[in-house]
Design brief:
60% of the residues lie in helices and 6% in strands. It has 825 residues and is mainly alpha-helical. Strands 1, 2, 3, 4, 5 and 6 form a six-stranded antiparallel sheet that branches. α1 packs antiparallel against α3, α4 runs antiparallel to α5 and α5 runs parallel beside α7. InterPro entries: AP_beta (IPR026739), ARM-like (IPR011989), ARM-type_fold (IPR016024), B-adaptin_app_sub_C (IPR015151), Clathrin/coatomer_adapt-like_N (IPR002553), TBP_dom_sf (IPR012295). It is a peripheral membrane protein. It comes from Parambassis ranga (Indian glassy fish).
């Protein structure tokens, strides 16, 4: 938005700049130019003064030159023709005896960012590489990188590249680091700067001469080098030893990242390096900078995944300070949970108990959640604290405690009696939707142990008309049905009232559809309803907090000293907004057999007496059996980390697409492989996006985009990371991108044929409907066997190539799609 009164201000400045009396007075002229810069910083469009400012750059006053160059670089793109007038002055300044003037001219010549001026800039930049002043060489080196960025399609002369390589031995360390940065930018298409043994040893020997960020840049680039022998490896590690305990956290983190990269095949050396990092990391946690403290805490969490006892003796260093911000307190509590053991559990719980009454509600709820996670190993002590917190009768505390008890009882079923006894009377304090959802889940699953469960539910049912939360309504429906199965006499009347309201009066379609589902399910009988709704009450297989196996360092080494640890949530996030524990997707365990989860829902979907169910189960029994066996035999695990955003997915997909389109169904490159499959499950296109996404996330496959159901052509884009154990300490990871495509051409041909022949009426006896459905299903099966039915086309891109991992992923994806398609058939 233009600054108010800008036109009049510009006119006054133009008159002042054109006034001969002002131009003759150097101080007044400089002050007028300073006013132009000040007005420009306020948002006024002063591009109309470009010609006057071009005249002002012809001066010997360095301060005035700097001011004029700031203006010219800001408006050069709007005045490309007038910018040509500046080139002569800049080229003349490049030959000035003052090195400061020469470097200033070179810097601003490349900052004009005009392709038409490239031919005038190359010669001064080439001369600047050989300048006797280090400040000029620094600017000239970075100038070539800017020039390449301005015209990335044009190639930089090989002579210039060789000159930059030779300048890696420049006596000025800043010039050396700038050469690395420039070569990295210029040679990005070739993989960046080439690192060999002489360059590596030269950079390591010059490392101590660089500043902090120069050292970080050198250490990052050195990660590409692979030592040729074990002796050379240990020589490099000896040179890095002093940097590993550097007082500067950025240098220390970059050095450890290089250590882990070089020692990927030596886990004992990596663990020893992590042990040496204890002191510098603890020092960084006490830094005056909040950002530095938070970053150090995030990286400590990463290290504790492989060395759980690394900070065990220093757990008091992670106690929260009163004046610390909430995000640091919450991260410290997450670290404290990882450090708990038999010796310090009493002190840690006492400390966390004090945080539960913090004035910041987020901190208080995080402390309660931390106590709940410790309760997986020390349930009695933690339940005593949580029960005492319920007596405070504060809304946010009660809500967090109920949610924590819900999550704790899901992992530790032995706590159910204590939790059921403590819940009585807590419904009076709950106000937020997440807490009420947690309470309703507990009332539904353990209602036979809670004496006042029907009366508590009746209060919720009487107020359902004024309930604003969709999640609470849906949880109330499920809880009431579950309680009806174990206490029918006390619940029958209120269940009827609830179903009547949800079916007849409720405006939200999700609640109405769920009520209709339960109503029709009850018509099938109590036993059928019990099979569907009374599933597992807990999942002890998630394990306890203490005694978990340490992860190999290689699983997270690549994300160290990046932004990834800062974006990661808790190891097992317990956010209350995720609803019931049955709907929470925990990290996929490598030893979990996928077929048990998928076959369960597949079998329960069909009624035992249904002909269509029998046909459906017979038709895909062979597919599911073979898929389940293959999945169980494949030592493959899928992971969603590191996350991939849509922009990065599109970039990776499109840059390989032309080659794939030219060469056919399967294309193999050095670092990736394309593959096409056809899966016979056209009914998958009718599946809702929510069901598809939930099923994919169950096996750690992330969907990024999909078309609405019943829309043709139907597409889904997804990705995952595969991890296969190569040995006891190492694992191999690949990235898989995928596209599911269903065009529906055969379906459209069938619809046109049906329209021409006429439609069959749907009225008739029940036996006739079953017969027609059986014939239709048998006909579809016959078409599939003859290859006439169209399937879903699956296009996969994997990098780097791993045929066994790709085969395992195809088996998992096929099983998921067949299971979902069978439910829609």
């Amino acid at each position: 938005m233009p600054y108010l009164g800008g036109e009049e201000t510009v006119r006054e400045l133009r008159r002042a700049l054109s006034n001969p009396h002002v131009q003759s007075d150097q101080l007044r002229y400089r002050n007028t130019i300073l006013k132009v810069i000040r007005v420009m910083s306020q948002g006024v469009d002063v591009s109309g003064l470009f010609s006057e400012m071009v005249k002002a750059c012809a001066t010997v006053d360095i301060v005035q030159k700097k001011l004029v160059y700031v203006f010219l670089c800001s408006y050069a793109a709007l005045n490309p023709e007038l910018s040509l007038l500046v080139i002569n002055t800049l080229r003349k300044d490049c030959q000035d005896p003052n090195p400061m003037v020469r470097s200033l001219a070179l810097r601003n010549m490349t900052n004009l960012r005009l392709p038409s001026l490239v031919e005038y800039v190359e010669q001064p930049l080439t001369a600047g590489l050989r300048d006797r002043a280090a400040c000029v060489r620094r600017v000239a080196v970075l100038g070539w990188a800017k020039l390449h960025n301005l015209q990335p399609s044009s190639e930089i002369d090989a002579v210039v590249v060789n000159e930059l390589y030779s300048m890696l031995r420049d006596p000025d360390p800043v010039v050396m680091v700038n050469c690395l940065r420039a070569l990295e930018e210029i040679l990005r298409g070739e993989g960046g700067v080439a690192i060999n043994k002489p360059i590596t040893h030269h950079l390591l020997n010059r490392l101590k001469d660089c500043d902090i960020w120069g050292q970080c840049e050198v250490l990052k680039i050195l990660q590409r080098y692979q030592p040729q022998s074990e002796d050379e490896l240990f020589d490099i590690l000896s040179l890095l030893d002093t940097s590993l305990v550097s007082p500067h956290p950025p240098v220390m983190a970059a050095t450890l990242s290089l250590f882990l990269s070089l020692c990927s095949a030596l886990p004992s050396v990596s663990l020893a390096a992590l042990e040496r990092m204890r002191g510098p990391l603890l020092a960084a946690c006490g830094s005056a900078s909040r950002e530095m403290r938070f970053t150090a805490l995030c990286h400590i969490q990463l290290l504790l995944r492989s060395v759980p006892g690394l900070m065990g003796a220093h757990y008091k260093r992670f106690f929260c300070g009163y004046a610390e911000p909430a995000y640091i307190k919450q991260r410290k509590m997450q670290v404290l949970v990882e450090l708990v053991n038999d010796e310090n559990v009493a002190m840690l719980l006492d400390e966390l108990k004090g945080y539960c009454t913090d004035v910041n509600t987020d901190t208080a709820q995080a402390a309660i959640s931390a106590i709940g996670r410790i309760g997986r190993s020390y349930s009695d002590r933690c339940l005593e604290i949580l029960t005492g917190l319920l007596g405070l009768k504060q809304d946010h505390i009660t809500s967090a405690v109920v949610q924590t008890m819900r999550d704790l009882i899901w992992v530790c079923p032995q706590c159910s009696d204590t939790v059921c006894f403590a819940l009585e009377g807590s419904e009076e304090t709950l106000q937020d939707a997440e807490g009420r959802q947690a309470l309703l889940w507990l009332l539904g699953v353990y209602g036979e142990r809670i004496s006042n469960a029907p009366y508590t539910l009746e209060v919720f049912i009487d107020g359902v008309r004024s309930e604003a939360s969709l999640g609470v309504k849906m949880e109330l429906l499920t809880a009431t049905i579950r309680l009806f199965l174990c206490r029918p006499a006390e619940t029958q009347d209120m269940l009827g009232r609830l179903l009547h309201y949800c079916i007849e009066e409720e405006t939200d379609m999700c609640v109405r559809d769920q009520a209709l589902l339960y109503y029709r399910l009850l018509h099938c009988g109590m036993e059928e309803t019990r099979k569907v709704l009374q599933g597992r009450r807990s999942d002890p297989s998630l394990g306890v907090l203490i005694g978990r196996p340490a992860e190999p360092v290689n699983q997270w080494a690549s994300s160290f000293n990046t932004l990834e640890p800062l974006k990661q949530a808790t190891v097992e996030s317990e956010s209350a907004s995720r609803g019931s524990p049955e709907h929470v997707t925990f990290d996929h365990k490598p030893d979990t057999v996928l077929s048990e989860t998928l076959t369960c829902s597949y079998a329960e979907d069909a009624k035992p007496g249904s002909d269509s169910a029998a046909l459906r189960s017979d038709s895909s029994a062979i597919v599911l059996a073979s898929s389940a066996a293959a999945v169980a035999a494949t030592p493959l695990s899928l992971s969603l980390s590191p996350a991939l955003n849509p922009e990065e997915f599109e970039r990776l997909w499109l840059q390989r697409q032309p080659l794939h389109a030219e060469k056919g169904a399967e294309v193999t490159e050095e670092d990736c492989v394309w593959r096409e499959e056809c899966i016979q499950c056209p009914a998958i296109s009718q599946c809702s996006p929510q069901s598809l996404q939930a099923a994919m996330q169950l096996v750690n496959i992330q969907t990024l985009a999909f078309t609405p159901p019943h829309t043709l052509p139907w597409r889904v884009y997804l990705y995952t990371h595969t991890q296969q154990a190569c040995s006891a300490d190492t694992s191999h990871s690949t990235l898989i991108l995928g596209e599911l495509l269903y065009t529906g051409e055969s379906q459209q041909r069938g619809e046109r044929k049906g329209t021409a022949d006429g439609q069959v009426g749907v009225e008739g006896s029940k036996d006739k409907q079953v017969k027609e459905q059986t014939e239709t299903t048998a006909g579809r099966l016959g078409e599939r066997e003859n290859g006439k039915d169209e399937g879903v086309k699956v296009t996969l891109l994997q990098q780097p190539r791993d045929d066994k991992a790709l085969e395992g992923f195809v088996v998992i994806l096929t099983t998921v799609l067949h299971t979902l398609a069978s439910e829609r058939a």
